[in-house]
Amino acid sequence: MLTARPPAGAHILYAGNARVARIISAAAAKHLTLMALELGRKSPVVIDGRNLGEEVQKLSSELFEYQANPEMPHPFKDLLDRVKLD
């Protein structure tokens, strides 16, 4: 729960259910904090930002191909394996 004002430029990222997302949304709205919600049991993606354009383009292409052929390996697995958390 956001109990204090977040730092300038802060972002809230949440992957989960709608009930908790509503709580987070209400708290974030009080401070006009940017947020991204991933609902519906999909796969959130974290990109380090160094090659953002390249990674987004690759991910978009892989997702398009995956929709056409669900038998192929899921595109998020390879991308998430390459993400390094600092």
Automatic annotation (TrEMBL):
GO terms for biological process: aldehyde metabolic process. GO terms for molecular function: aldehyde dehydrogenase (NAD+) activity. One of its GO terms (cellular component) is cytoplasm. PANTHER family: ALDEHYDE DEHYDROGENASE, ALDEHYDE DEHYDROGENASE TYPE III, ISOFORM Q. This is Uncharacterized protein. Keywords: Oxidoreductase. It comes from the Eukaryota. The keyword Oxidoreductase applies.
